[in-house]
Amino acid sequence: MTVRRLIAPLWCSLLLLPLVACGPDDAGGADPAGPVAGAEPSIATTVDGDPPAATPDEESPAASTVDACALVSKKDAEELAGTPLDDPLEKPAPDRDTCTYTGPVSGPTAQVEVFVGPGAKKFLDIERELGHELTPVSGAGDEAYAEDGTVFFSKGGVWVSIRLVRTDDPAKYRTALAAVARTAAGRL
Q1: Which fold has domain 61-187?
Q2: All structural domains of the chain with their residue ranges
Q3: Is the peptide bond before 108 cis (omega within 30 degrees of 0)?
């Protein structure tokens, strides 16, 4: 037998070992040792294994029906970014709380992200906790704030954030960000 024939099965088993070791087990992914004493249930599941129900503070019914790509169209995103952008990936109805327009691989670097619902509010809360300077924006919903490259607004209890990623000075896009927030708030 050649050395190659002897090493091939060993090589294959070494390649498959990480897949077997990291894959789900036959018990449905449950930890055989059980939960750690005193540990809180995971945020992803409750004690009975079901995902937690959304509380009224987490998501309003209106937020779950808003299509983020309908709030900021491709044309709006391109005007904001100042460059052509690719179409966003098509998402199934329940996952339309985000929309991302990216620049083509040929450049320039550009991306417009739209978030609707509790994630947008959490994004704003984190910006506040970090001490980032937020400027009020008038005419965009019930309340609105801007930070370099991002605008946040709320209308009827639904929070939206629109973020622009470009490699040049964010101050160049402040007026355009406020304008797209006003347009999106009018569509909400």
Answers
A1: Protein Transport Mog1p; Chain A (3.40.1000)
A2: 61-187
A3: yes
Give, in degrees to the nearest 5, the angle at Cα 132 between 126 and 135.
110
Question: Any idea which residue has 């347009």 for tokens?
Answer: 183
- Each residue's pLDDT, cut to its tens digit, for the chain (188 residues) gives 444 444 444 444 434 444 444 444 444 444 444 444 444 443 444 344 444 444 444 444 455 578 899 999 999 999 999 999 999 987 666 667 899 999 999 989 999 999 999 999 999 999 999 999 999 999 999 999 999 999 999 999 999 999 999 999 999 999 999 999 999 999 99
The closest alpha carbon to 160, from 181, 174, 131, belongs to: 181
Look at the block and give the residue holding tokens 């991302």: 100
Quickly count: other Cβ atoms within 10 Å of residue 99's Cβ. Answer: 23
pTM greater than the 0.90 cutoff: no
